[in-house]
């Protein structure tokens, strides 16, 4: 990634800044100020009529990289030049990118010139840093895109690894990908646009983008390890490749997910403090670039499945949704037939919702009467009554493991086929 050594003086924003610096400085010191590009052409001036003219004295200053003064006699022999002092302007990399000049007695205006020169150079360095950061962010987003489309045996793993290394990726470390989706952000954006529609000053889109940048900053404050990689993927989505620890010092990779989840819960708290919420997906621990690509895709599947089944924001780990992940790949026609054959008679009953909750709780509670009754806030005799009712209605005995497995899977499929939460 290369930091540009020469500003684009044709950029309207940069030219406006040059004009503002020239005008504001002139108002304070009482002398005319100009700023030129490397060809000596004036790009900013307290006297706007001079913009676009050649300031010939700047050519020697730029070529020799040192300041000079111009007397009245010398000025008469130089095109577009008035008596005063001229200094070169340097970029962050040290190259000369233009000049600045102040009209007046050299001894009087020289101290002002050095201050103005420094002010302009600070402006340019800030822009160079901004362009460098924006360029790096763009390249990072391209890398994430390539990671998301990586196909083992087809994609070039060596090239992808080389690109990842530019962002401190270390293939000897265990990584856990994290996908972040701001929940119902469209509503927030709509409210901002509505609130700012008749307000002068800051534009709504600037406010919205500012919130996204703030979220990214919070992500980077939390996931701030030496090998962590994070960026805004698109719109209101973010991604983190959390470098947990070197594999050789981490004998239990599953613990990496626990560590990652703790950081993610902290992130959700900070997002909530901003008046927003998020759904977060966590992939499985990955070692190596191919494994990382697969786990990255898992993080987004975990997020999608979590939102689908839980109908809201939260933290969703792929390991908690392996069954849901598997059934989501089943052909729709097979899913429909399985659900219909397993649940048809029960779904026709008026107390279907109660029976459905009983089946789910019975399976998730380890087929325990006590635990099922506790979760449903029922007496155990009521649970027994419902289990018997299910057997009478459908012929399914929930004390049989395979029957429970079929019904539980059918419930998941039914939920998967149903409508998701609206955002």
TrEMBL record:
Q: What are the PucR C-terminal helix-turn-helix domain coordinates in residue numbering?
A: 356-412
Annotated CdaR GGDEF-like domain ranges read 156-304
Annotated Putative sugar diacid recognition domain ranges read 16-147
Q: What family does this chain come from, according to its entry?
A: Belongs to the CdaR family.
Q: What is this protein called?
A: Helix-turn-helix domain-containing protein
Name its species: Dethiosulfovibrio marinus
